[in-house]
């Protein structure tokens, strides 16, 4: 199957009454789709990271509420609305850090707030979810072509975790910027951190880059500092799961490490994300909720035990990079630099 065309990864497919999604937990070994008409299956897929990445789970959450709304059998608009809100809350609770999920659900709920027909509401939910998907692809494409000017004409560009098409509606954020720069003729070579504990860099980013033909090299996470010290890294570009109004950014655990390394070595550190990832209700990174994952992801990756049983384990899925370590935040509405709050209020 042609998974990637013109930079767009076709991993989320709405079929009118079902969602078909690529199970990312099986990559790179298996390229297998799951199709479901049950919103609980979509919730489970988001929870176990079969669907992952902030923009992608926003899109998937929109389709999940489409499926959930179809299970509500009443024609009474008030009863329907009550059940719809309950379903929305269940979907939103699956992953608390990535703001795109609650953003998409809130947008859909608001779009049907004053409608009086259950049939019309169900139709509107679907059209709104489809619009969110289309818009996400276009936002990511736009920010990618805006952000490509920041990348060097040649040399090594480092990225972390997976912020490609798999993490979005299809086009990618950090990896989208890299793709746009490469397609524009820049001779860049991507350095991919493996991204422990779940190896999203090794499994997913490497998979995408290999599919698109962009040159890259995979490293273990603890090799990064040595490459900075040798002067090989020209810039770092990462995605985001939630951005506070002051520019503090939550991303995959380990991102903060790279931001500190970049600052120490005088290397630009860029964040690429659509404006849907900026949370206007969060003033700083101190207020961003950090999801704790199951300790087995650390002690038993891929089902194989690598540590003694019954030990204490830390399992935060994300860390927060302070805004003063970020050289610029790339959005579909332009490149933002500190101070961020005033600029964000103008564009969101």
Ends: how far apart? 37 Å
Q: How large is the radius of gyration? A: 20 Å
Strand residues, percent: 15-25%
If you average the pLDDT, what whole number results? Answer: 96
> Helix count, per DSSP?
11
Order of helices and strands: EEEEEHHHHHEHEHEHEEEHEHEEEH
CATH architecture of the largest domain: 3-Layer(aba) Sandwich
Strand order in space, largest sheet:
8-7-6-9-12-14-15
Helix and strand composition category: alpha/beta
- Which stretches are poorly predicted, pLDDT < 50 over at least 5 residues? none
Q: Using the coordinates above, name the CATH class of the largest domain.
A: Alpha Beta
Oligomer status: single chain
| Overall geometry | globular
Question: CATH superfamily membership of the largest domain, which one?
Answer: Translation initiation factor eif-2b, domain 2
Q: Specify the biggest β-sheet.
A: 7 strands, mixed
Report the count of strand segments: 15
Write down the domain tally: 2
CATH topology of the largest domain: Rossmann fold
Notable characteristics:
39% helix, three-stranded antiparallel beta sheet, globular, Four Helix Bundle (Hemerythrin (Met), subunit A), 348 residues, 11 helices, alpha/beta
């Amino acid at each position: 199957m042609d998974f990637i065309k013109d930079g767009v990864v076709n991993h989320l497919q709405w079929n009118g009454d079902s969602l078909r999604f690529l199970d990312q937990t099986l990559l790179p070994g298996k390229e297998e789709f799951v199709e479901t008409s049950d919103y609980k299956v979509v919730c489970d897929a988001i929870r176990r990271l079969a669907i992952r990445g902030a923009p992608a789970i926003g899109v998937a959450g929109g389709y999940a509420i489409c499926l959930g709304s179809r299970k509500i059998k009443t024609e009474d608009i008030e009863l329907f609305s009550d059940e719809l809100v309950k379903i929305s809350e269940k979907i939103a609770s699956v992953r608390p850090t990535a703001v795109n999920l609650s953003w998409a659900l809130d947008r859909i709920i608001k779009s049907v707030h004053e409608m009086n027909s259950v049939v019309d509401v169900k139709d509107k939910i679907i059209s709104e979810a489809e619009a969110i998907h289309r818009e996400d692809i276009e936002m990511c494409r736009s920010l990618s072509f805006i952000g490509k000017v920041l990348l060097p004409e040649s040399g090594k560009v480092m990225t972390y975790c997976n912020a490609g098409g798999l993490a979005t509606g299809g086009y990618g954020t950090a990896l989208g910027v890299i793709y746009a720069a490469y397609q524009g003729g820049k001779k860049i070579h991507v350095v991919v951190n493996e991204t422990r504990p779940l190896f999203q860099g090794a499994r997913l980013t490497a998979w995408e880059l290999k599919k698109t033909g962009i040159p890259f090299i995979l490293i273990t996470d603890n090799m990064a500092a040595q490459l900075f010290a040798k002067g090989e890294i020209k810039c770092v570009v990462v995605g985001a799961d939630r951005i506070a109004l002051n520019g503090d950014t939550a991303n995959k655990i380990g991102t903060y490490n790279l931001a500190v390394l970049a600052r120490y070595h005088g290397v630009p550190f860029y964040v690429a994300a659509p404006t849907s990832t900026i949370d206007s209700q969060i003033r700083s990174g101190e207020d961003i909720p950090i999801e704790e994952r199951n300790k087995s992801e650390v002690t038993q990756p891929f089902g194989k035990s690598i540590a003694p049983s019954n030990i204490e384990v830390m399992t935060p899925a994300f860390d927060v990079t302070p805004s003063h370590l970020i050289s610029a935040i790339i959005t579909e509405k332009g490149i933002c630099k500190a101070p961020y709050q005033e600029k964000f209020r103008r564009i969101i």
